[in-house]
Write a structure and sequence with these properties.
The chain has 100 residues and is α+β, with helices and mostly antiparallel strands. Helices cover 36% and strands 22% of the residues. The structure holds zinc ion.
Length: 100
């Protein structure tokens, strides 16, 4: 388990098998955010590091959208996540973790 901070709040990041909710009409989810538990889940079915990153950023954008009351649609969240993921992958040195 890893922790990350988004807008000052601490979140648990876990890799788990994600099952579809029975009332969920969306396709198979690769990521899920549980706001009550403060937990971001990334599906264990994802093997590609690039897809893991895209999924993580997607969930982070959901958290930011909710916490700031932006009301972003699922398609906007997906588009922003894909765009940001591309920038990070194309500029790896810019996004290396800061040494402590
Ligand atoms: Zn989503």
């Amino acid at each position: 388990m890893t922790r990350l901070k988004i807008l000052g709040k601490s979140w648990r990041l876990v890799r788990v098998p994600i099952t579809r909710d029975k009332d969920d009409d969306a396709g198979l989810a690769f990521g899920k955010t549980n706001f009550q538990a403060g937990e971001i889940q990334i599906s264990t079915v994802i093997r590609s590091p690039d897809q893991q990153l895209d999924t993580l950023i997607h969930e982070i954008v959901h958290v930011i959208s909710t916490d700031l009351g932006l009301g972003l649609s699922e398609s906007t969240v997906s588009a922003l996540a894909a765009g940001l993921c591309g920038v990070i992958l194309d500029n790896p040195r810019l996004f290396q973790a800061k040494a402590k």
